[in-house]
Design a protein that fits this description.
The complex is a heterodimer of chains A (about 100) and B (about 280).
Chain A: H1 3-26, H2 29-68, H3 71-104
Chain B: H1 3-13, H2 15-18, E1 29-31, E2 34-35, E3 39-40, E4 43-44, H3 45-66, H4 74-94, H5 102-118, H6 140-162, H7 180-226, H8 229-233, H9 235-271
Antiparallel strand pairs in B: 1-4, 2-3
Classes of the chains: A mainly alpha (about 100), B mainly alpha (about 280).
């Protein structure tokens, strides 16, 4: 066996061990903590999106209502629309998240 | 530890902590300039920090691309990592068509990231208030303008490319006609809430992080001057500051990333409005 071959097999061996160690690391607590952090971040993002949608719905309803004569009626109509828009936004961002996860697995 | 000495000198050292947690967000004019008192165009500490951010990014990317080598050095690889990261994000979300938006997304990401990051620098002790470190992105008007810029680009590009076909965005395909009066307002509200949620998310994260840091710093000051056992306990909030500071580093990057990726997702709507 030449010197070059010997070096290559050493490198291959090192590569195998590294890949194995990385594989073991994946299931470690560190990964779990990262996943929890990412999930908390996603949760906060979705919560803000939902809250803002309800707010925009109310604001839009109130503005249109005040032009048409009754701001209160406008607000009351705008609120459920905002709520529905919030649900739609949340559904859409969760769908994107799920698609990303599917791609990874 | 000679607590007597510490107590004698501390009040002076802790004077910066005496300011409330919201004082760091105050806009202080550096060169006042106003027209008849109606339009205020003063160069403020916010303008100064925006200029610092732009200067820093210019300097960094000039250094990174000055002497390009096949095996990159430290600065060049950092620049390449930043480029590859955003280019990959643009390619993944919008495909090859989205490459025309790369300069916009890259500029947006760099600006927000550096605003968040440089805002974490400590102020120089004893410097005047107008030169204290200032986080530009902790002001909702700044984040709102950035968000309007993103969503405005979506609308303008969508209308130019698809004409009135862009309005299909508000009428998803496959929805029965009788549901349209309900779906269209919902989609419009959903669309209008995009710039608001983009702006609020970035602003709220930066504001909350800096307030928490300042409150913890306030605890340290109060406990240290209280004397006795309480002075020793002040190490706890000090340790807390270190942890929150590390978290803020992560938030600085994460918020810039979220802003950039959501801009890409919205721009995807401008490329293909019917979804």
């Amino acid at each position: 066996m030449s010197d070059d071959d010997h070096k290559r097999s050493d490198l291959d061996d090192f590569g195998d061990r590294l890949a194995k160690a990385r594989g073991e690391e994946k299931g470690s607590k560190d990964e779990d903590r990262k996943a929890i952090g990412a999930a908390a971040g996603d949760g906060l993002r979705v919560a803000i999106e939902f809250f803002v949608s309800v707010l925009v719905g109310c604001g839009l309803g109130y503005t249109i209502g005040s032009f048409l004569g009754s701001a209160l009626v406008g607000l009351l109509i705008g609120m459920p629309f905002g709520f529905a828009a919030g649900l739609r936004t949340v559904y859409r961002s969760l769908k994107i998240g799920a698609a990303d996860e599917e791609e990874e697995t | 530890m000679n607590l007597g000495l510490v107590e004698r000198f501390l009040p002076d050292m802790l004077r910066p902590f005496a300011a409330g947690p919201m004082e760091q967000f105050e806009i202080v004019p550096i060169f006042p300039l106003s027209f008849n008192g109606a339009i205020d165009l003063s160069f403020t500490n916010a303008s100064l920090w925006m200029a610092i951010v732009v200067g820093t990014s210019l300097l960094f990317f000039t250094l990174a691309t000055r002497r390009l080598q096949l095996i990159p050095g430290g600065t060049q690889s950092m620049g390449e990592v930043a480029y590859e990261f955003i280019a990959g994000m643009v390619r993944d979300t919008m495909g090859d068509e989205g490459r025309q938006f790369f300069p916009f997304v890259f500029t947006l990401f760099t600006f927000i990231f550096l605003c968040n990051l440089l805002g974490l620098l400590p102020s120089i002790p004893g410097s005047p208030a107008s030169f204290h470190t200032f986080t530009v992105t902790s002001h909702i008007i700044v984040t709102f303008v950035l968000a309007i810029l993103s969503v405005g680009l979506v609308v303008v590009y969508g209308l130019i490319k698809h004409g009135f076909g862009f309005l299909k965005l508000f009428a998803p395909s496959g929805v029965p006609l009788w549901l349209m009066p309900l779906i269209v307002p919902i989609e419009i509200i959903s669309f209008l809430s995009r710039p608001v949620s983009l702006a609020v998310r970035l602003f709220a994260n930066m504001l909350a992080g800096h307030v928490v840091l300042k409150v913890f710093a306030g605890f340290v000051g109060t406990l240290l001057t209280a004397g006795g056992v309480l002075s020793v306990i002040s190490i706890v909030p000090l340790f807390g500051i270190v942890l929150v500071f590390l978290l803020e580093f992560l938030v600085a990057f994460l918020q810039a990333f979220v802003f950039a990726i959501l801009t890409c997702i919205y721009l995807q709507d401008a490329l293909h409005p019917s979804h």
